[in-house]
Amino acid sequence: MRDLSAVRQGWGEVERAEARLFCSMTAQESLRQWLQLQQVFEPQLRDTSALFGPERQSALAELQTRLRRLAEWQERHGEPGSVHSEAPTAPAGS
Length: 94
Known about the structure:
Helix 2 (27-47) packs antiparallel against helix 3. The chain is mostly helical. It contains three helices and no strands. The termini are far apart. The radius of gyration is 18 Å and the shape is flat.
């Protein structure tokens, strides 16, 4: 039981380190990381496609939408930015 308790206590530090890593990654680095994970897990993804295929397709469509909005934002502002999954809203008074 002590081992499990030690893991639980150290988990917060793992989560903080993970958050720091993700915040320091560019969109390109994040995409590269995602593609590497996709390659590693491809056999499992194929094996479970009947169960989770539609959910994965939906997630990929959402990712494409977000990446498109990021590219549009970068074109307008000339720098990387934050893209949220919710649709943009019109400014008040428009």
